[in-house]
Amino acid sequence: MPDARINIPSKVARGEPFPVKLQIRHPMETGYRTDDVGKGIARNVIRTLTCRYNGEVVFAAQLSSGIAANPFLSFFVVARAPGEMIFEWIDDAGVKGSDRVDVNVA
Amino acid sequence: MKRRRLIQGAGALALVACVPARAADNALPSIPALSAFLAGRTPRFERIRLELPSIADNGFAVPMKLTVEGPFAPGPYVKTLRLFSETNPVPAMAAFEFPLPLERIEIESRIRLAGAQQVVAVAEMTDGRVYATAREVIVTLAGCMDGT
Fold first, then answer.
1. pLDDT band, residue B21 (cuts 50/70/90)
2. pLDDT at residue A3 greater than cutoff 60
3. For chain A, counts of helices (H) and of strands (E)
4. Chain B CA closest to residue A64
5. Which residue stretches of B1-133 are H helix?
6. Is A67 on the interface with B (CB under 8 A)?
7. What percent of chain A has pLDDT over 90?
8. What ipTM was predicted for this assembly?
9. How many domains does the structure of chain A reveal?
10. The listed CATH number (1.20.1250.20, 1.10.645.10, 2.40.160.20, 2.60.40.2470) that belongs to domain B2-139
11. For residues A87 and A71, what is the distance between their CA atoms, to the nearest angstrom?
12. CA A3 remoteness from chain centre
């Protein structure tokens, strides 16, 4: 299973907002749980998520342990020109993730 | 006839007594992180809508939908949307930023809630104006419990 799943319409109309759906595989560990031997599990949540569209930041999110595991996000972005969207995120452990999707503007 | 009216009156009275006292729509719970963000600004209780189930079975993943009513042009746009929790250990749950003007502000996600509480959504516009709303959620299984 890949680290993220991204879903946008196969074709979007120029100048119109279109939905972007994104789910990242991540435990979003709260830091309040303990393992089988009672040792605390360190907090590890995705802190920031950035969405770039043809190089320009169009959406960003600051997340916390208040977001469910395997965070799902859906938002709108205006279809300006054909190109690509790049999603990047980083968690407390400093692990970076990224994914991309092509935008087909009609 | 008199007896019928009496029964009707008693019924109405019983109905009123059954409706629990609810916080006024324009009262926000006191959350230090929220007060710090507002920094003395008084939010308007309009345009922003927070959809949450009134009873959430599972606090580990509560579906959330946040919308801000447009149209925004030619006035100010939404700059950030923030979610605050009344009783979660981390009250500032999330912030969503919109660096470019956007007419359709609609966010969906799934949040964790540590027990029954009010969740507050705040939208900050590019001119500094703030809109807010609060929703009360009853959580059956709190989302911070240890699995053991």
1. very low
2. yes
3. 0, 7
4. B93
5. 2-18, 32-38
6. yes
7. 90
8. 0.94
9. 1
10. 2.60.40.2470
11. 14
12. 10
Please indicate whether, in this complex, the C-beta atoms of A73 and B108 are within 8 angstroms of each other.
yes
Structure tokens given for B94: 């999330």
Cβ contact A66–B97 (<8 Å): no
State whether B94 and A60 contact (CB < 8 Å).
no
CA distance A77 to A94: 27
Residue B97 has which token pair? Answer: 């930023």
What is the value of pTM for the model shown? 0.86
Name the token pair of B129.
């104006």
The whole-number pLDDT of residue B11 equals 60
Per the document, the length of chain A is: 106
Residues in chain B: 148
Q: Give the per-residue pLDDT at B13.
A: 55
Q: Does B118 touch chain A (CB under 8 A)?
A: no
Listing DSSP states for A81-102 in one string gives: SSEEEEEEEEETT--EEEEEEE
